[in-house]
Amino acid sequence: MSRKEVFQTVLNKFFIIVTLINVATFILGSIFKPNDTFGYGAFIYPVIYGMISSVPVLIFSKAGRQLTIKQAILRELGLLIVLECVLISFSYGLSGVERNPVEVVAFALSVFVIYVLVFVISRLLDLRQAKILTDDLLVFQERELKKMEEEKSR
Amino acid sequence: MEIKVKRIPKNEKEQIEISCHEMDDTVREIVSFVQSRQGQLSCSLEGRQYEISVTDVLYIESVDNKTFVYTRDQSYESRQKIYELEEILKSSRFLRVSKSTLLNLMKIKSIKPALNGRFSAVLHNGEEIVISRKYVADLKQTLKGGAK
């Protein structure tokens, strides 16, 4: 992929990730710390997590050549593992605060769910765009065939 | 080489005549350019020259500085560079879909997303050609009827 393509892909994913992190924060917070309250600073955390997640996405998206399906699946799997490690380290490891293991597992699970949802949403958006392109293509081919027939009949 | 252009009456047949001492690369290039403008591509296969109708071409690919022309049954080599063919075939429903590929839009059956964020064009013969995201905007514009 070219730099521009990589940037577009990462940017698309970044916004999906931030939205889903907000949803995950709401769900996990409601389960584990329903009485906690936050200041305005809390609004920046989904963006920070989104940016941290975008770095491995950026690195893994920079495949110079066309990947086979098997290679693409392996790459996605590698990306998931790296994302889990980076995000768990950032969220728990670096803070030095001892956390409830159930919380860590729930966090890791939410990273996985978000990862899968980002993949599914991106895929659905691509499928929608591909369908629009195919529909436009069929109209184009019909129009061009008519033109060719007209040219022949002249 | 001297170039002469002569206006003729409408009832006379238009023609191009090249007078040369020998059929060298320059002359061959001129001939193949004129042929491609007339819906024919001059290509070679196993040392033999062929004239292929542009409408039979599925796609044209550039590999290691060589240009290959693919039809349903054969792949031929062309002397022309892909950017030259892009310019010539622009009006013949061909479009650049990646850095190295020129695709005949009339030979595409459908378009589907690839796993790596790109798109694939599925041709009528079942082959799949990668469409880079960079060229999707051009594709959209062409399909909508706008010139690139």
Task: Considering the chains and any ligands shown, give keywords for the structure.
heterodimer; A: 154 residues; mainly alpha; 4 helices; 0% strand; elongated; B: 148 residues; alpha+beta; seven-stranded antiparallel β-sheet; three-stranded antiparallel β-sheet; 10 strands; 22% helix; 36% strand
Task: Provide a count of the helices of chain B.
Answer: 3
The count of DSSP E runs of length 2 or more, i.e. the number of strands of chain A, is: 0
Helix content of chain A: over 70%
User: What is the terminal separation of chain B in angstroms?
Assistant: 34 Å
The shape of chain B is globular
Sequence stretches where pLDDT stays below 50 over 5 or more residues of chain A: none
Number of helices of chain A: 4
The chain-level structural class of chain A is mainly alpha
